């Protein structure tokens, strides 16, 4: 009997998969515990719709990431910070501050966890890499001044 899993079942499959199991296992264990539903026409249609919706969501996220990468790539973001006499900053410039500057100057919302940059502890220009999506990155320059 073919069933569609409603939850992950150990040694059988993950949620949303269609698996082939014995009739007794399906009737006596999977169906009474709502771990699976019988794979009829309606259930198959719902499964296809869920998979299509999931794929559409992934496609839109990739398209947005590519558009943001094109817009960010090669741009420069300017930050100001206080420093001592020798140009060494009080503290350092963090990825949170860079994300806020990108939002303010380029009008693009970036999560601070996606920004990778070396420690910025003095004035100057620093390269910065932003991982927007799996396999999609953008490079950016951060200029720190007074």
Number of domains: 2
CATH architecture of the largest domain: Roll
CATH topology name of the largest domain, in short, is Ribosomal Protein L9, domain 2
Range of strand content? 25-35%
Percent helix: 25-40%
Largest sheet: 4 strands, mixed
Kindly report the spatial arrangement of strands forming the biggest sheet. Answer: 4-9-8-6
Cα shape: elongated
By CATH's scheme, which homologous superfamily of the largest domain applies? Ribosomal protein L9, C-terminal domain
**Counted beta strands:** 9
Low-confidence stretches: none
CATH class designation of the largest domain: Alpha Beta
End-to-end gap: 71 Å
Q: Could you say which structural class the secondary elements and strand pairing correspond to? A: alpha+beta
Number of helices: 3
Determine the oligomeric state from the structure: single chain
User: How many whole angstroms does the radius of gyration measure?
Assistant: 25 Å
Order of helices and strands: EEHEHEEHEEEE
Give the overall pLDDT as a whole number: 91
């Amino acid at each position: 009997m073919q069933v569609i899993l409603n939850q992950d079942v150990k040694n059988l499959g993950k949620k949303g998969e269609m698996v082939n199991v014995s009739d007794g296992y399906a009737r006596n264990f999977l169906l009474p515990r709502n771990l699976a539903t019988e794979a009829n026409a309606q259930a198959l249609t719902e499964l296809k719709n869920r998979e299509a919706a999931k794929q559409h969501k992934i496609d839109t996220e990739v398209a947005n990431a590519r558009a943001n990468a094109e817009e960010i790539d090669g741009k420069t973001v300017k930050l100001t910070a206080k420093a001592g006499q020798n140009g060494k900053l009080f503290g350092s410039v963090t990825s949170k501050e860079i994300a806020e500057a990108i939002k303010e100057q380029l009008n693009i919302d970036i999560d601070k966890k996606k920004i990778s940059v070396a420690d910025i502890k003095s004035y100057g220009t620093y390269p910065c890499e932003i991982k927007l999506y799996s396999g999609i990155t953008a490079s950016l320059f951060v200029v720190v001044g007074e």
